[in-house]
């Protein structure tokens, strides 16, 4: 850890609170907003993802009755799908809509505005038709910007990795003072992204908290897990930050550097004393000076070292 040259931080749950909120809903022409919100919430009620929980919470706060969904399937890095009242619903990132053959261009202005505000745009399709664009915002943790500044001051290259679209990721990185952004990275691509940074910079630490962070935590020279994270992340990591605060990351590096410095100083003085005094104790000066090292003085010297 003391020799780390780069720190890669997963965005959600590490730099942000990991408790997103649904902030915006824009419905395509020909769709009813209440009906769309209800159908989306029905799909997301089957998921444990924080974004899904935010969408369900917003629907319940509006007093919407959420129907049961069937044939639910999560597509890691893309979104989720299910059938609700006989209708096929898909909810996820723009790349999910592209994969389904849907063009999100009609929401381009809305998506651009939301991304510039640091919000994550999501989309919903009903029966193969693009129905809505939503935005989810995950507040940045207090002290995150100051922690990044401390890492930079320590000569550490800082990078943020996220599955968010590039525009949203860059907006959040600007708020945090991070220059290197790895956006639109699928869960299975995180470990590869860490490996590329290791090849370019050298020893690299990865900080994450989710199940899909485990491969990257294992790939990094040092894996740091947030204490509020999943058991898999904590088990895979080398270090667990118990308070889950971003400020503890530069603190961990400082402790590592100071610990190694203390070890080196202690070793220097121990060897320095021994190299000088062992020959004296062995009588190297006795033939010329008659000096011997009294055992009491030898014990005192050992104590001082």
Radius of gyration: 28 Å
Q: What's the count of strands?
A: 12
> What general form does the structure show?
elongated
- SSE ordering: EHEHHEEEHHEEHEHEHEHEHEHHH
Overview of the structural elements:
The chain is 45% helix and 22% strand. It contains 13 helices and twelve strands. The strands form two sheets. It has a six-stranded parallel β-sheet with strand order 9-8-1-10-11-12, sandwiched between helices. A six-stranded antiparallel β-sheet has the order 2-7-6-5-4-3. β10, α9 and β11 form a beta-alpha-beta unit. α11 runs antiparallel to α13. The chain starts with 5 loop residues before the first strand and ends with a helix. The model has no long low-confidence stretch (mean pLDDT 90).
In short:
This protein is an alpha/beta fold and 305 residues long. Helix content is 45%, strand content 22%. It has a 6-stranded parallel sheet with strand order 9-8-1-10-11-12, sandwiched between helices.
Could you outline the blueprint of secondary structure elements for this entry?
Layout: E1 6-10, H1 11-15, E2 21-27, H2 33-44, H3 50-61, E3 69-75, E4 79-84, E5 87-92, H4 94-99, H5 108-116, E6 120-126, E7 129-137, H6 144-153, E8 157-161, H7 166-176, E9 180-182, H8 190-201, E10 204-208, H9 214-219, E11 222-226, H10 231-236, E12 239-241, H11 248-281, H12 286-289, H13 295-304
Parallel strand pairs: 1-8, 1-10, 8-9, 10-11, 11-12
Antiparallel strand pairs: 2-7, 3-4, 4-5, 5-6, 6-7
